[in-house]
Amino acid sequence: MIFRTKNNQMDDSSSSSSSTDSDFDDFSDFLMLYLLSDYNEKFIEKIPQRTSVLSGEDFVKQLLGGHERTCYELLRMDKNVFVELCTCLKQKEYIKDTREVKVEESVAIFLMIVGQNMRMRLIADRFQHSLETIDRHFRLTLKAICKLGQDIIRPTQSPLPFRIVNSSKYYPWFQNCIGAIDGTHVSACVPADKQVSYRGRKNVVTQNVLCACNFDMFFTFVSAGWEGTANDSSVFIDAITTPEYKFPLPKEGICNQN
Length: 258
Prior knowledge:
Elements: H1 2-44, H2 56-65, H3 68-75, H4 79-91, H5 103-116, H6 120-127, H7 131-152, H8 162-165, E1 180-187, H9 195-198, E2 206-213, E3 219-227, H10 232-241, H11 254-257
Antiparallel strand pairs: 1-2, 2-3
Helix pairs in contact: 5-7, 6-7
């Protein structure tokens, strides 16, 4: 009687194990069919998403060959300035043509995202590239612009312009002046938990930016990233007291002479 019961238990265990193996085999077959179907849909019978006749390269050519105002409205930059910017970036080798995207197209992608606050999905459809390509070239152009900014935005040792020296209204009162400074608020996109400190008196999320320029209207210093609620004096004191920023201070002794 006991032996028979053990046999029954063994038979039940064997049938349960067989059922489990069968279920596992069925799941494996289903998973294999799903993967094959997904691969077939993505790579074999793939339906192209970007099918516009006007490619990104053609769009940029049309933009540069069209009306001056259209280029400025879309890129926030005149045609000649855009071409000069692209030429400068290529000469300094901060950015290069790739097999799929040329420098002019990459810069246009960057300017439309920054100047128009457009989402990358819209840019991807406009320039007929994947989201990964748009994101990659946006980052490459951003790094190139930052490198170029370090070359352009720097203190200068140029003499006073003749319009200052030859004017009794400005000279000698501005003979030791190194330029002018001012602050401005630029719209910012920050995480939700930090928006309170960036929301200024006009209830807009901004960053407080300090800029300095010389008499030739060239920027010599820019300090960005401060919260919109930051006081202008705090931004200025931090700029002139932090040696790493290299603020264009007057030469030592000039203030004492005045």
